[in-house]
Design brief:
Elements lengths: L3 E5 L2 H9 L1 E4 L5 E3 L19 E3 L6 H21 L4 E5 L4 H10 L5 E8 L4 E6 L5 E6 L13 H17 L5 E7 L5 H10 L3 E7 L17 H10 L1
Parallel strand pairs: 1-5, 6-9, 9-10
Antiparallel strand pairs: 2-3, 2-4, 6-7, 7-8
Family: Belongs to the universal ribosomal protein uS11 family.
Pfam families: Ribosomal_S11
GO cellular component, one term: ribonucleoprotein complex
Length: about 230
Amino acid sequence: MDIVIELQLDDKIAVNRLKSLLVCLDCKSVYSASSLKNDDGLACMKCKSIRLERRIDASNLSTINRRISEYHIQIKSLHEHYKEKVLTINANLNADQVITVGKSAKKFVTGVIHIRATFNNTFINVTDVQGNTLYQTSIGAHGFSGSRKSTPYAAGKASESAAKVAVERFGMKVVSVVIRGPGFGAEAAVKALQGCGLTVTSIAGETAIPHNGCRLRKKEKSIEYLKRLFYVL
């Protein structure tokens, strides 16, 4: 599970919405009274029936308050369990506005940060869990040049900049780190990520390693082989 959406709603608005719920007696569909108002009056959107009545449990105020209190108790444990993946949306608006806000508030609570550390530079790429690039930077992009590009301090500054963008712009809280390359800036970059409030769940090393070594040197011709060769000639 990558993200958990929480719709925050005031208790008074929740009570008013529950009290306005209507049930179709023919198809048992549930509607809000405000969503069914039209020129022809109240009618079911599925079967077009006008046999609508208020829900039994929605007419009792004590029942509604008890359900709301139970909801707050149950949601507390869930919120603590998924606190690193929660995306909160204001549900006090109407349905169309909530959908619009939800689409515009696209956030990536979890992500992946790729660090490629070479001996002369360190490249940092922020992606979502599917691998789509969201932001990328490097030591050279932050004004470091020459021998300073290979220092751990410069790698930490570049990583700190990427972490701030991931947190402030994309709302990331939990990331996994993938490290490639033999450079010296990888460790400093990971420490900078943790210092900016990101929770690093895993660190994977994907540096390419030769599996069979370099090609062997060509063997020299032996003296016996040369003697046989000249004897034939």
